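Example for tutorial group B:
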């Protein structure tokens, strides 16, 4: 134990980089982090989360704040040892201190973990070998995990001093003096009566955040001018008092203060809606009397029933009741997230008490933000908000995964799911979610792998008492039940069945449209469905007809035993189905399963339009939209399509008299468009219903000329027979063949007339539940096996459930060290490589366009200077996402090298450059790379295929 006259030595440093040769004292950095943690506790952590953590500690909220700040102040205590001071810092050996410390250069985080496990019991904490009390070992792991990965739990099976070389010397006295000084500054907070591992995860996120803010170079340089005169108690107390208000400024300038929208009536929240839809009216009337704290709301309804407004209103009510002021709106794709961001921002601007940053949360968000930082993620400075708008993000929020720490954010599922994967800094993601109300839109848009991830996330959110709203247009009851069960298991009011078998459902029935509220009150589950039937918007019956198309077979390789490749011939079906649009007018979409099919179908439809000649079909517009366009071109096409086929274009008189959109499945969720006719490849029923939601979507507005059409129509292209083995090869590669067979048979049985919403829920459940729909037993077993395999793989990939982690009392399973960040993925088979197709002339110069009017930025001869922010954005807008895989991993370093100015930019250093050469004919020819040919066509987008194959 340190003596009364021993105090921290200011010569012992913690920071040096960027400080102009100065060394920042370790004790000052510890006090800075403690002060910042207190500021975060008071000005960033949501009230409900403060109360939750305090209850878990068994103390009041003020005491809980001081306890966490105390631990934050100790995070770098492992730097007080000779290896760090002389090897990591450029310090000469300090007089009066031994030159030898721990036996191995193991890193200061691990050193701090091990030493605290030994030293904390001298301050009243339980011994780390107490099998019934894990508080000390958890705190040691929290401190050791402040760089993103947790060390192994300290054990008492060895003598720490002997094992790790912690001698009772001057270094040991300094660590004890440091421990005492931080405790004194915070009024010696008591040992918390309790601490569990899930709570420790959130605490870790808070300590990491405090460290990040207190480690900024501009802040350290400022504090160097105001260091204490000595390490005496009075000087340190005065220093701590001076840094407290500065710490509060750091939190505010970083954009971490809460964006609060108070709960209000539906009419007050949406004054422009004079007559709410039935769904909106039901939630507005009945939900307020059910919400007394955290809970889960599941909303199911067809498109056009106002689910988005329901989500916002429910989040306001539930967030207010649970004290979670933040919001996380999560959607399946970047396109849907960007669209939702605009709507959420308009809502926040109208209703927020004080403007605060509103973040986009996805990998390409830095291209879309309202204000772009000088170099995304690289600067350590905090800048205030952009002067044009107070809802713009600060520069600090752009760095790494900081965006989720903003009070409000709109992004993709992945940003939240990463919190339940064993990735570095997942504790920060968990902290970012814990203070929010989470709204998951398009909750049906997940595969079995992501469904298990979402269940694990809901389990953690239930444990942390986070309100959640799930919105879906097509959700099977069993999936809704799984989500509700996961949330209640996390909340601790529902036990996980020990054995497989039939368990009573939490949700026995889903109304459509309808909603279910699930909560944990008084230690028991409470499940309430909408009290009264909901009247949906009256809609014309949907004509969903099956259109048989020829399936052509051809050998895909030279081997005689190779399986034939089957392709769908859409020619005659499209000629017949599109004829009324080309002759009389209207809007149509042709939805293809793959990009290659969409590109070929685009050529086919263009020929059909040309065949119409100079007759009534003259002037038919044709558009192509898929994910294999450069980002700038995809954005332009999307904007054009949204205006031409959307409600704004109809209001402005810009809706084309005759138009056809050829697209892939990306239009299912990301485009608010209105079509008269949809022709679509066979797909799982839920997806077909999603696509059908784009037909006569804005009919209730009365702003569209239907050209004498009397009903919306969806024509589903199918093989002649509903057999899984008869499906075209590209369709089977994307969707389970047996599910396509089930959908085909169900639509045959049901007939062409589909009543929406009346038929939807029954169809969604029947397509999965009716055993008679699966005649091809082999393919059915393959589908079930694949789903089970994905779920099993997800179960091994996610972090433990909160109750498992609490039982283990060991945080190391949260960030398994044998998992690299690159190996942790939220989706199976997701696009994982971004390519940039450029044009290489005979002199070797690279051009951004085929006309050679714009040189590719950063490849100018002799250039080594860094890229400007606008240049970086210009480059990224030229990129295209493609599927990764072995072909990419087998590329040589020369193949994957990028120009020198790109290498230091975090978003550009892993791009794959595709150089299309200029042929002798003067035409640009295909590039060959990774066993594939690549050609960027200005109309069709990227065309790439395996070398020597037809597709």
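The residue assignment follows.
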């Amino acid at each position: 134990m340190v003596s009364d006259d021993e105090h921290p030595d200011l010569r012992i440093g913690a920071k040096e980089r960027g400080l102009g040769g100065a060394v920042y004292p370790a004790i000052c950095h510890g006090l800075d982090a403690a002060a910042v943690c207190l500021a975060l506790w008071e000005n960033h952590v949501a009230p409900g989360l403060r109360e939750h953590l305090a209850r878990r500690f068994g103390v009041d909220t003020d005491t809980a704040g001081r306890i966490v700040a105390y631990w934050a102040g100790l995070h770098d205590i492992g730097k007080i040892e000779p290896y760090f001071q002389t090897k990591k810092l450029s310090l000469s050996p300090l007089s009066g201190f031994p030159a030898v410390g721990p036996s191995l250069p193991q890193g200061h985080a691990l050193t701090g973990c091990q030493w605290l496990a030994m030293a904390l019991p001298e301050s009243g904490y339980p011994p780390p070998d107490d099998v019934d009390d894990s508080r000390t070992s958890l705190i040691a792991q929290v401190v050791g995990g402040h760089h993103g990965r947790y060390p192994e739990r300290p054990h008492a099976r060895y003598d720490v001093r002997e094992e790790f070389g912690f001698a009772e010397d001057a270094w040991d006295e300094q660590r004890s003096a440091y421990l005492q000084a931080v405790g004194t500054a915070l009024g010696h907070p008591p040992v918390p009566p309790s601490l569990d591992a899930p709570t420790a995860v959130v605490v870790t996120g808070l300590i990491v955040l405090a460290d990040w803010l207190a480690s900024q170079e501009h802040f350290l340089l400022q504090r160097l001018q105001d260091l204490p005169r000595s390490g005496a108690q009075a000087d340190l107390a005065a220093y701590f008092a001076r840094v407290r208000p500065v710490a509060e400024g750091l939190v505010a300038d970083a954009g971490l203060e809460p964006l609060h929208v108070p709960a209000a009536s539906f009419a007050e929240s949406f004054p422009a809606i004079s007559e709410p839809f039935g769904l909106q009216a039901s939630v507005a009337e009945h939900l307020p009397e059910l919400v007394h704290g955290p809970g889960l709301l599941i909303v199911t309804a067809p498109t056009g029933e106002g689910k988005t407004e329901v989500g916002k209103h429910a989040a306001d009510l539930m967030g207010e009741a649970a004290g979670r002021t933040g919001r996380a709106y999560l959607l399946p794709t970047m396109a849907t997230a960007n669209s939702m961001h605009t709507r959420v921002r308009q809502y926040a601007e109208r209703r927020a008490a004080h403007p605060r940053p509103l973040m986009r949360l996805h990998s390409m968000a830095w291209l879309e933000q309202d204000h772009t930082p000088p170099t995304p993620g690289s600067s350590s400075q905090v800048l205030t908000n952009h002067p044009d708008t107070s809802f713009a993000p600060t520069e600090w929020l752009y760095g790494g995964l900081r965006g989720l720490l903003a009070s409000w954010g709109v992004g993709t599922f992945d940003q939240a799911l990463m919190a339940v994967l064993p990735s570095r800094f997942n504790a920060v993601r968990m902290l970012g979610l814990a203070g929010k109300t989470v709204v998951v839109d398009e909750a049906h848009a997940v595969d079995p792998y992501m469904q298990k991830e979402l269940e694990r996330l809901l389990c953690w959110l239930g444990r942390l008492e986070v309100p959640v709203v799930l919105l879906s247009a097509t959700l099977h009851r069993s999936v809704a039940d799984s989500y509700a069960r996961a949330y209640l298991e996390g909340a601790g009011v529902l036990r996980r069945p020990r054995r497989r078998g039939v368990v009573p459902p939490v949700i026995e029935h889903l109304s459509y449209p309808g909603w279910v509220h699930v909560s944990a009150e008084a230690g028991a589950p409470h499940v309430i469905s909408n009290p009264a039937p909901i009247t949906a918007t009256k809609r014309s019956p949907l004509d969903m007809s099956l259109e048989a198309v020829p399936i052509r077979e051809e050998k895909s390789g030279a081997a005689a035993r190779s399986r034939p490749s089957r392709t769908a011939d859409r020619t005659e079906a499209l000629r017949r189905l599109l004829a009324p649009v080309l002759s009389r007018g209207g809007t149509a979409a042709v939805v293809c399963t793959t990009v290659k099919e969409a590109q070929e179908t685009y050529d086919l439809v263009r020929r059909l339009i040309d065949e119409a000649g100079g007759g009534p079909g003259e002037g038919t517009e044709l558009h192509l939209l898929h994910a294999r366009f450069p980002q700038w071109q995809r954005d332009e096409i999307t904007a054009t399509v949204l205006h031409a086929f959307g409600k704004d274009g109809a209001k402005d008189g810009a809706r084309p008299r005759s138009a056809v959109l050829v697209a892939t499945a990306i239009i299912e969720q990301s485009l608010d468009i209105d079509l008269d006719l949809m022709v679509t490849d066979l797909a799982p029923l839920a997806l077909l219903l999603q696509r059908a939601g784009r037909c006569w979507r804005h009919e209730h507005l009365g702003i569209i000329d239907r050209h004498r059409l009397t009903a919306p129509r969806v024509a589903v292209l199918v093989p002649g027979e509903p057999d899984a083995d008869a499906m075209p090869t590209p369709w089977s590669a994307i969707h389970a063949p047996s599910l396509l067979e089930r959908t085909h048979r169900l639509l045959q049985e049901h007939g062409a007339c589909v009543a929406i919403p009346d038929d939807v829920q029954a169809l969604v459940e029947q397509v999965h539940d009716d055993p008679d729909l699966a005649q091809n037993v082999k393919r059915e077993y393959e589908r079930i096996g694949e789903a089970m395999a994905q779920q099993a793989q997800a179960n091994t990939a996610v972090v433990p459930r909160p109750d498992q982690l609490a039982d283990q009392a060991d945080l190391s399973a949260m960030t398994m060290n044998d998992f690299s960040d690159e190996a942790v993925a939220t989706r199976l088979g997701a696009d994982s490589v971004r390519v940039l197709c450029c044009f290489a002339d005979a002199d070797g110069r690279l051009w951004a366009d085929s006309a050679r009017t714009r040189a590719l930025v950063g490849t100018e001869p002799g250039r080594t200077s860094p890229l400007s922010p606008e240049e970086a954005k210009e480059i990224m807008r030229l990129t295209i996402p493609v599927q990764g895989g072995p072909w990419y991993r087998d590329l040589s370093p020369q193949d994957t090298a990028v120009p020198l100015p790109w290498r230091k930019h975090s978003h550009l250093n892993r791009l794959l450059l595709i150089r299309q050469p200029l042929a002798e004919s003067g035409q640009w020819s295909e590039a060959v790379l990774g066993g594939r040919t690549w050609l960027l066509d200005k109309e069709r987008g990227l065309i790439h295929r395996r070398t020597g194959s037809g597709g």
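The first strand starts at residue 13 and ends at 15. Compare this with the pattern of hydrophobic and polar residues in the output above.
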